[in-house]
Structures are given as structure tokens and as C-alpha cells.
From TrEMBL:
Molecular functions (GO terms): acyltransferase activity
Protein's name in the database: Beta-ketoacyl-[acyl-carrier-protein] synthase III C-terminal domain-containing protein
Keyword Lipid metabolism: yes
Family: Belongs to the thiolase-like superfamily. FabH family.
Keyword Lipid biosynthesis among UniProt keywords: yes
Keywords associated with the record: Fatty acid biosynthesis, Fatty acid metabolism, Lipid biosynthesis, Lipid metabolism, Transferase
Domain (Beta-ketoacyl-[acyl-carrier-protein] synthase III C-terminal): residue spans on this chain: 24-107
Species of the source: Campylobacter estrildidarum
GO biological process: fatty acid biosynthetic process
Length: 125
């Protein structure tokens, strides 16, 4: 099996901003009303690019340095790993596999516990 990484990356750069705009219009929200954006943790460069391109500085958490690209687990892991619990309007966006994008906005997301790792041991906090 072989992934065409450049094509997937180009697809992502082109289509994610369009999907971002579409979901905001669908939800009748402005980007300023979003408290957090939890995007698939593909790579740090892409996340930094999207944060700048979408104009959402400080709202797009990144845990790549801790976990890397964890595939389909990246968004739930990111939510659990985030220390800031401001979840009024949260956008989730997964992308990549099969040139697909999935996006939703959740209101008042309640995560009762988050994860912390110490000495490679998982603890709930």
C-alpha cells in the first residue's frame, strides 16, 4: 500500500478552508463565535498553515509534539488532552483517508475528564 502524500496535502490545503466556511454558514455562526477547533492532527506545518489561513489564532490546539499523527484517534485524544475546557461552540474536522473531510460543530461539549501521561503511564484527571 502506498499513500500519495503530496496529493493528499494539496487536497487538504484546497478543500479544508472551503469546508470551514460551509459549516459556519450552515450553523449560522461566525468564526469568532467558535471557542475551539479540534482538527485531525496530521502534521504541525498543516495545522499552523490552517490556523493562519482561517484566522483562528489560539483556537486550534496542537498536540503533535506529544503524540504525533495518531490517525483516527487524533481528535478524541486532542479533546481529552486539552487543558482549556472552554467548549461553548467547538468545531471538529477530520480529513485525509480516501480524500474525505468530515466536519461538525458541537455546542456546550462536556468532557468530564481529560487524560494525562506521566512516565508513559495513563492517568485520568
Amino acid at each position: 500500500m502506498q499513500m500519495k502524500g503530496v496529493e493528499v496535502f494539496d487536497f487538504t490545503l484546497k478543500h479544508l478552508p472551503l469546508e470551514f466556511k460551509k459549516i459556519l454558514e450552515f450553523a449560522s455562526l461566525k468564526k469568532e463565535e467558535l471557542s475551539k477547533l479540534y482538527f485531525h492532527q496530521a502534521n504541525t506545518f498543516l495545522l499552523s498553515y490552517l490556523e493562519e489561513k482561517l484566522g483562528v489564532q489560539g483556537k486550534l490546539p496542537n498536540n503533535m509534539k506529544n503524540f504525533g499523527n495518531t490517525s483516527s484517534n487524533s481528535i478524541p485524544l486532542l479533546i481529552s488532552d486539552t487543558k482549556d475546557q472552554d467548549y461553548k461552540n467547538v468545531m471538529l474536522m477530520g480529513f485525509g483517508v480516501g480524500f474525505s473531510i468530515g466536519t461538525c460543530i458541537l455546542e456546550n461539549l462536556d468532557c468530564s475528564c481529560s487524560l494525562i501521561y506521566k512516565n508513559n503511564e495513563l492517568e485520568k484527571r
